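As agreed, record copied across for absentees:
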Amino acid sequence: MNILAAFEKNMIPEKYKKMPTEELEARVLEIKKNLGSRLFIPGHHYQKDEVIQFADATGDSLKLAQLSAENKEAEYIVFCGVHFMAETADILTTENQKVILPDMRAGCSMADMADIQQTERAWEKLQAIFGDTILPLTYVNSTAAIKSFVGANGGATVTSSNADTMVKWAFEQKERILFLPDQHLGRNTAVDLGVGLDEMAIWNPINDTLEYDDDVEKIKVILWKGHCSVHENFTVQNVLDTRGEYPDMTIIVHPECRREVVELSDLAGSTSYIINMIEKAPAGTSWAIGTEMNLVKRIIASHPDKKIISLNPHMCPCLTMNRIDLPHLVWSLETLEESANVIKVDKEIADHAKLALERMLANS
């Protein structure tokens, strides 16, 4: 198949874009009814409401991949999330299960900030500087190839919920860690565990250099120069503006935010942590949330008894997370057998990536 043919095969037919919403919704319901337990639709917290309404389970990326693996009856897993999430689902599920991503353009800018060629070059240079004193950790928001690299080199994956635990574990194995691909989660976690900012360096994958101005022997954490394009857009000024307008409001943010934003906020934690804190909060409390806008809007709608705003009132939903819409969902469901959007991870890559995931699950 030439490049043009492959591209056209992955393009949604125009007829789905022109269908009325009512017809699209009816088609999803009919297919779900006909397939029953043979179909499983996981939906990430950041997805659009038009898609999430049909999800059989909602959650963060790892939880959804685990639920997919536990659901042995499902022949088809139509993953409403992004590419790296569908990869993780494929790694954890069986050969008999087919993982499908409704729109192959649904990616993650953070995951794309660390590719395997950059990582292998970085590892070679860091080994030359530090010897065998480094353990690699990668956020689950990374490609299968990066998870595989980490697994092959004795490391593990982490989530925003268990990052503290996994960084502690890593320091029990080696003197230093390399944290990929999100520098902010790595920095915030390390600070929480008592590592000084002066003991952290940044690896710049664009020019293959270690950014650090002191004696490299002091370095305990090497942070990959990557970030979440959404969470990095929450600023100190957003916090100051919110404090000025709503002095009694509790500010809660995701640890993918910059260090200075986390420091000025009242609370910081994973998506699940944020959801749980709001759910447990008494009626009448007020909250400013620093995370993806689709989720914030859903939380607001679910808690009319509380005053809830986005920490950044001008924040847009994650563009890549928002690729999957109702037409793409219907198209993927109606073409399950011949779908061009099947996610299949090479076995060798999958085996090492699974090692990294299993080490995390065994230690957290």
Summary: The first strand starts at residue 39 and ends at 40. The CA atoms of residues 289 and 310 lie 5 Å apart. Confidence is low (pLDDT under 50) at residues 1-8.
